[in-house]
Design goal:
By secondary structure, this protein is mainly beta. The protein has three helices and twelve strands, in the order H-E-E-E-E-E-E-H-H-E-E-E-E-E-E. The two termini are 28 Å apart.
Length: 254
């Protein structure tokens, strides 16, 4: 008989070093970026809907991302395209150890382990921006959900490569207050938008530090507008919300 392998130790939800921004003054950019890196530490659970509108060569496209998150480790993201009758959507579910996915259009499902981080990559001996951030709850890599909820990489790899201006605050359509930023010509970009008139508009939630607005512009033309149209913090999310149900005829692949 062999002993069962130890369960994966999920990172604890430690208190944020900076619980809130100063109420009286506008934060400096360095202070705001530091505040954003700890966004996920300011809530225990999150429900968010992101609507992503893009202008492409094929015309206007809309994609909707519904996010459920409960610390530590539990998350689900449902991303839909087209109308509800198109069955063009996919589901991503994580429990802290494994990731389950379902592609409705191809009727396929997968189950894989969450990738492990390089040993020592988050060591306090490294400079802060050289460490790999280990999220309390993982979200799909390189997705809008991950960018909005875990904005550390976006600050370092995108905002800090351009010229950033604060444009004041605004009440967002979701009812939350956001600090608006403009970033001119960020260097981390696809070739097609590596132009001097490429700029970003970013809305940062005042309470949590999450990104709630990300709009791309080329000159006066908006090419992308992604916004968190609804945000709910610390509501009870039952275990059933993180269960992925698939039909018997679903093809399972690695």
């Amino acid at each position: 008989m062999h002993d069962a392998p130890p369960a994966t130790q999920l990172p604890a939800l430690r208190p944020a070093e900076q619980p809130a921004l100063p109420a009286a003054t506008q934060p400096e950019l360095a202070e705001l970026f530091a505040f954003m890196t700890e966004a996920e530490l300011r809530f225990d659970s999150l429900r968010m809907r992101i609507v992503d509108r893009r202008v492409t060569a094929a015309g206007d496209e809309i994609e909707t991302h519904d996010v459920w998150l409960r610390h530590p480790g539990r998350a689900k993201v449902v991303s839909g395209r087209g109308t509800t009758t198109d069955r063009d959507f996919d589901v991503w579910v994580a429990d802290g150890e494994k990731v389950h996915t379902y592609d409705a259009k191809g009727n396929t499902a997968t189950e894989r382990r969450i990738p492990t981080r390089p040993v020592g990559a988050e060591s306090p001996d490294l400079p802060p921006w050289s460490r790999i951030y280990l999220p309390v709850t993982t979200l799909p890599a390189e997705s809008l959900a991950d960018t909005f909820v875990h904005p550390r990489g976006f600050c370092h790899n995108v905002l800090m490569t351009g010229t950033v201006y604060k444009r004041g605050t605004a009440a967002m359509p979701n009812g939350r207050e956001a600090i608006l930023l403009r970033c001119d010509h960020p260097r981390t970009s696809h070739v097609l938008t590596d132009r001097p008139d490429h700029w970003l508009e970013v809305g940062v939630d005042v309470q949590t530090g999450m990104i709630v607005l990300l709009a791309e512009h080329v000159g006066e033309t908006m090419t992308r507008h992604a916004e968190a149209v609804s945000v709910s913090l610390d509501e009870r999310i039952p275990d059933e919300a993180f269960t992925l149900h698939v039909s018997a005829d679903t093809r399972r692949i690695y």
